[in-house]
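Proteins fold reproducibly. Look at a concrete instance:
___
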Amino acid sequence: MVAALLAERSPERFTSALAACGPIGSFPLQIQNFGDFRVLFDYFFPGVLPGSAISIPAALMSGWDAIYAPQVTAALAARPDRALELMRTAKAAYDPAAPATIVQTTIDTLWYNVFGTNYAVEKLGGNPYDNRLRWYFGSSNDLRLNLHVQPFSAAIEPYRTSGHLSIPLVSLHTTHDQVVPFWHELVYLFKVDPVGRGRFLPLPVKRYGHCNFTTQEVVSAFGLAIAQP
């Protein structure tokens, strides 16, 4: 996202830019994505993690690797039906042919909530997560889910990309990114003026995983970026 923001806001410093697997479409929606996943996890697996989507106790961060990540893994293994409901309601990326990716997606997404929330509140000047108007669907009982999921109200308006480009921006993103969803590329595409030098060139990579690129894919994307006129 930093690369995209620099391309938009400081075009005089660069001839082109390359953004890889970033939340370039909408930073507020990315914050929502992390928060939604946490409140849904807490609904399907209550009591596994202390705190909430917007309040992360120090004990959760210090004990994440040794205590809480293993507890999350065990909870998913004990209730695979709820694990699938979590994936469906969160619209999270996973590979149906590889059940281990459900655990990977859950651990990776919760990690950003656990280690990013307090920092985000401090740097952005308030709670950036708001789900008061959200309607979650995809569970076995959506009405019950939406009546009981914990609501939160945002206090700030996070940073946004504008799509106003005067230099080329190339992006590289896996289609099944479990941390930063691929839809960011589509959202950003609709922001950008389709004509002019400041064009946007998204490069989708059909694969599961966050930044799960081969060396050749990265080198090719970089070569395309620097080759732009």
Observations:
- The first strand starts at residue 17 and ends at 20.
- The first helix runs from residue 2 to 9.
- The chain has a mean pLDDT of 92.
